[in-house]
Amino acid sequence: MIRIIFITVSILCSTLSHAQHLLRKTVTVNVKKQPLVKVLNSIGEQGQFHFSYTSDVVKNDSLVTFSAVNKPVKQILDQLFGGAYQYKEVSDHIIIIPDFSKQFTISGYVQDRETGVKVVNATVYEKQQFISTLTNDQGFFRLRIKGSDRNATTITVSKDLYRDTTLAVHAGVDQEMDISIKHAPTVMLMPVDIGVEKTWMGKFFLSSKQRMQSLNLSSFFADKPFQSSIVPGLGSHGHLDAQVVNKVSFNLIGGYAAGLDGVEVGSIFNIDKKDVRYVQVGGIFNVVGGKVLGLQAAGIHNYVLDTVTGLQVGGVLNIVKGKMVGLQAGGIYNNTRDSVKGAQVGGVFNLNGKNVQGMQAAGVLNLAKDDVQGLQVGGVSNISDTMQGFQAAGVLNLAKGDMYGMQVAGVGNIVHGTAKGFQVAGVFNYADTLRGLQFALVNVADTSTGYSIGLLNIIKKGGIHQLSLSTNEITLLNLTVKTGTKKLYSIFTAGYNPVANKKAFLFGFGLGHIFTLSDKMYLGAEFLSPNLYLGSWEHLQSLVRLQPLLHYRLNRLCSVFAGPALTIYYDEQEVIRKTGYRSRPGAIGWNAGITIF
Fold first, then answer.
1. What distance in Å separates the CA atoms of residue 339 and residue 326, rounded to the nearest whole number?
2. Residue 228: helix, strand or coil by DSSP?
3. Phi–psi pair at 96, nearest 5 degrees
4. Is the per-residue pLDDT at 380 higher than 70?
């Protein structure tokens, strides 16, 4: 080998002026069973030059029978060596070296070492040239290899559940061989998850042979600077494309690689078995069996079997089986089986298998099966376990656990836990335990240490649910409903005065607070903002009424009350009295009645 290197350097350093066209000289050879070294010496003496070669390239002791009259030296040499060598002229020497451009074929059968049974779909490959084939249904293989600058090369046989077997073969010589492979020990057999090959896209776009080869070569991978392909298996890396991590990858239709450490573009699809870093763009879809770091964009679909850190954009949907850290945007749907830390934006809905730290926004629905810490905005609905932050929906918000922050919904909010913060809805709010504020037409809680503001507030344990019949200086008959807690209860009241020439209607809403004086007595401080009808809707009276009412409990379900009242009118102008109706009452008044429940 050292001599070959020396000779090659000499070739590069020599000048054309030294060339003497030695190979064109004519000589005569007529020998029978003579050693090759003598034949070469005879040719050299006739042509007045010398041969240079190594003994491992040219076998001196091989016997030659040959005849040629006045033939060029090159023609005689080609006939002697069968065209397997190249010749270089340097000064008065002809250097004989192997013709590395020639191909040779390795063929044979692969069989089980213990049973002798032929092994089907075993991968036979040469690592340096990235050439491979699979054994057929009789266990036969044929592998064409380019010549190399070495006298020997190696081929490897790999098969799932078997040990890898590597053999040395002579370079430049067609040869046949039978190869025996041995089962791997049981302790070495690990469950194999092929990953991308098991997805429906992998099954559809990859052939059974490609999937089998990927399984056989699960421990062999290489790095390459560039690859291009038309479809998987038809590209610069041939059938071993799935074992290469590329720096730059261009796929005219689609590609199948081990991974990416740079930029990958596929006009239709990209399929990578392991990690992808930096930029991956697929016209229709991308499938990655490992982690994604950087930008992943597809016209329709991105599918990642591990985690994504960076930006993932899918025209229709994104699916990530691991964690998502960064921004995930899908035209219709995003699905992250693990947690999201960042933002998840879906045109229709988002599904998250664990917790969200950041933002979830969807045109219809956001669903987080675990905690949400941040912002959750859904055009229709949001569903989470524990909610810490802000939850806003056009229709409904649902927190299966506790809620710390604020819920805003067009229809309703539900917390199956403790609501500590604000619940604001157009129709109803519900919380197991309320430690904040509810505002809706109807508010419901099992227990409450907070405040519920609405027409109807139902606190199941320790709440106020009262119905009062009363009279006052304005209306003779009044019906009032009070719901909420002692800290704050809502009041809805309606009254009518049937006395001739003193008719009046009173209706409105208010708030109240209870001060407990003893077991039998308590004071209700009430603020009302009712409306008074005195025969004209155009001159409907809006007023504020303050009334401290002292209650005395007759029993657990009934109490009587009485107290003064102060009425303040928004409009100071006296209303013209209508026939049959009373004039506007004065500012000082009273209220008395009975309360049940």
1. 11
2. strand
3. -105, 120
4. yes
